[in-house]
Amino acid sequence: MANERLKLLEEVEKEIAMVLQCAGNIVLELSKDKHNASLLDRQLVQFQTSINRVESELSAQIRYLTQVATGQPHEGSTYSTRKDCQMSLNRAEYAKVKLGELGRTCEAMLEQQQI
What we know:
Blueprint: H1 2-30, H2 37-70, H3 79-114
Helix pairs in contact: 1-2, 1-3, 2-3
């Protein structure tokens, strides 16, 4: 079960790399004087699909960790663990927000280019 969860997180990591690569490709293509609209559309679809997969899997991992953490018996202070978990959740939420902002920015740039 733990190895399975780690493999899923590795897949999420690869998906995040794909998101960053798509975003870079979109920005690079938009920086050209004459850009390829079909390439931009394909990259945008890939970007959005990857973002959705990352968000979905991270949410599932957070739900799992929340369930597991609350079901454990008390064995001394858990402050440090709870703090680490909360910080991880905060970082995941921040990444989600920033990736969403990047997606909206790319969409806005595409709309401006099509006008």
